């Protein structure tokens, strides 16, 4: 069995199914009237969006004035959360025709897992938008058609530190727990979860197109070469290790040391590359049943 191909085939299948199903017609561009509940009561605002690829720009207008909105929206990223979650307690049943139950055994979400109500979409949350606006943007992006889903499959979410197409310093220190909302949801459901945020990364770190560098961080500035990038080797390292942990069988390459690779915080792809703005964390059982729990990989477990 060629594991790398099989593992990424699973990821590709998730994205392909999504693009041909509920999210195919999702287009958040346009004008949207939103009602946002706050401690001061319900407020009606108008959100006007333009979409260029994954990038969203627009304005959020209310009685208090207009605020520019910029972010990214990826139907594929949302689809990973949804498709792994069919068949979870209280969720919609698996809608496929080849399998009667959900066949997804493990997932890697590249920027990012979301909660069942559409919240905790990191490309929006990292813009430091109010959480209700971020959730509304996801609902707009899916045209309010999010199926019922929940934590079901062991999930690794690798989130970008910044949301835009280039890193921009945060105007105020962000909440270090901001990227751990879905971690808490999966943890509460007893489903294995691993969340990572790498230093200096942004949404295009997960694209392979020209003009989408591995990160803005150059591993060898003395030579002017950025071969391999800063985060890309670590993203690949953890993706392969996660699929090895959940998909490999005894005797197959990568089966025996998958747990050790996932907890190798002191290695060259580990804590040294993790964000100091947002905490990375993990909770999963190793093959012997020992719980691997860490709330902040960078600062130590």
Average pLDDT metric = 76
User: Measured on Cα atoms, how large is the radius of gyration?
Assistant: 19 Å
Structural class, please? alpha+beta
- List how many beta strands DSSP finds: 9
Largest sheet, in brief, is:
5 strands, mixed
End-to-end C-alpha gap: 34 Å
Read across the widest sheet, the strand sequence of neighbours is 5-6-7-8-9
What count of domains describes the coordinates?
1
Low-confidence stretches: 1-26
What does the overall shape look like? globular
Q: What percentage of amino acids are in beta strands?
A: 15-25%
How much helix is in the residues? 10-25%
Number of helices: 7
What is the N-to-C order of secondary-structure elements (H for helix, E for strand)? HEEEEHEHHEHEHHEE
Question: What does this entry look like structurally?
Answer:
The protein has 301 residues and is an alpha+beta fold. It has one domain (3-28, 70-294). 24% of the residues lie in helices and 20% in strands. The chain is built from 7 helices and 9 strands. The protein has helices at 3-19, 75-85, 122-125, 131-141, 181-188, 232-247, 258-262; strands at residues 30-38, 41-52, 55-62, 65-72, 107-110, 155-159, 193-197, 281-285, 291-294. A 5-stranded mixed sheet has the order 5-6-7-8-9, sandwiched between helices. Strands 1-2-3-4 form a 4-stranded antiparallel sheet, with helices on one face. A hairpin with a 5-residue loop joins strand 8 and strand 9. Helix 1 crosses helix 2 (75-85).
Q: Top keywords for this entry?
A:
301 residues, 5-stranded mixed sheet, 4-stranded antiparallel sheet, disordered N terminus
């Amino acid at each position: 069995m060629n594991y790398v191909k099989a593992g990424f085939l699973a990821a590709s299948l998730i994205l392909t199914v999504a693009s041909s199903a509920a999210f195919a017609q999702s287009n958040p561009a346009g004008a949207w009237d939103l009602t946002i509940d706050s401690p001061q009561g319900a407020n009606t605002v108008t959100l006007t969006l333009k979409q260029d690829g994954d990038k969203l720009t627009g304005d959020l207008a209310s009685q208090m004035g207009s605020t520019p909105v910029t972010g990214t929206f990826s139907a594929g990223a949302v689809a990973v959360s949804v498709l792994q979650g069919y068949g979870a307690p209280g969720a919609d049943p698996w809608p496929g025709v080849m399998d009667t139950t959900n066949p997804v055994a493990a997932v890697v979400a590249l920027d990012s897992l979301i909660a069942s109500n559409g919240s905790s979409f990191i490309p929006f949350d990292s813009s430091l938008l109010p959480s209700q606006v971020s959730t509304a943007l996801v609902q707009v992006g899916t045209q309010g058609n999010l199926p019922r889903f929940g934590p079901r499959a062991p999930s690794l979410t690798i989130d970008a530190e910044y949301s835009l197409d280039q890193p921009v310093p945060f105007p105020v220190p962000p909440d270090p727990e901001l990227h751990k909302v879905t971690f808490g949801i999966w943890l509460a459901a007893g489903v294995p979860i691993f969340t990572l945020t790498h230093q200096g990364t942004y949404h295009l770190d997960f694209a392979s197109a020209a003009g989408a560098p591995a990160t803005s961080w150059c591993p060898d500035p003395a030579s002017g070469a950025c071969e391999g990038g800063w985060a890309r080797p670590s993203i690949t390292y953890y993706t392969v290790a996660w699929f090895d942990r959940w998909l490999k069988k005894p005797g197959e390459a990568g089966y025996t040391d998958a747990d050790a690779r996932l907890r190798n915080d002191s290695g060259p792809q580990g804590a040294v590359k993790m964000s100091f703005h947002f905490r990375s964390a993990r909770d999963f059982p190793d093959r012997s049943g020992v719980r691997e729990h860490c709330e902040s990989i960078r600062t130590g477990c």
